[in-house]
Amino acid sequence: MRDGTWEARAAAAGRLCGIDEAGRGPLAGPVCAAAVILPEDFPVGILADSKVLSPARREDAAATIRERARAWALGWASPWEIDRMNILAATLEAMARAYGALGTESDLVLVDGNRVPDLPAPCLAVVRGDNRVPEIMAASILAKTARDRVMDRYDWLYPEYGYARHKGYPTSEHRETCLRLGPSPIQRLTFRIRIGGSGTA
Question: Which tens digits make up the pLDDT trace of 62-118?
Fold first, then answer.
């Protein structure tokens, strides 16, 4: 179901789960999704869309979420699955994996964006949910910090590609490196590499 009635539905729900992803736009690496159920006394003031938080604040918030959430889990889709399925299908699959790994059920799942995965629970899509729903904000933070950490590790394996700096996003540096050296072993081969413009890490 699409955004529109999520606030009333969320207010009536007993246990609310938020889901968000990180890594749809990069040219390399996996996409990561997180599912989070927060307690009523969670300090929501530390939450925001992960993209507007500094790395230090994201890491601090992620530690608090992992410590105090009722439940949280991550789901992943590899670059090879992204190439095989397409990025949208792979993202929805990662979201379903994250929810399946929670180990508990929720009364309502709110998903950032305008599409929802196939889950054994009622789902609503919330456009810009990572700015509006604490549970989605928390999921955004966990997904972003987890994926960034994975890309830092890939930087150890493939230092010439600079993954620690751009996390696989289509920066000019990343595109030019791919054109000069060829694709790395974690490249999404179905994604086009263009010269010009910038990426967002």
Answer: 999 999 999 999 999 999 999 999 999 999 999 999 999 999 889 899 999 999 999
Residue entry with tokens 């992960």: 50
Of residues 29 and 104, more confidently modeled: 29
Q: What is the pTM of this model?
A: 0.90
| Domains identified in the chain and CATH numbers | 6-149 (3.30.420.10)
Contact 110, 129 (CB under 8 A): yes
Find where tokens 């996996």 sit. 30
Taking the C-alpha atoms of residue 138 and residue 47, their distance in angstroms, rounded to an integer, is 6
**Buried/exposed 113-146: b ≥16 CB within 10 Å, e otherwise:** beebbebeeebbbbeebbebbbbbbbbbbbbbbb
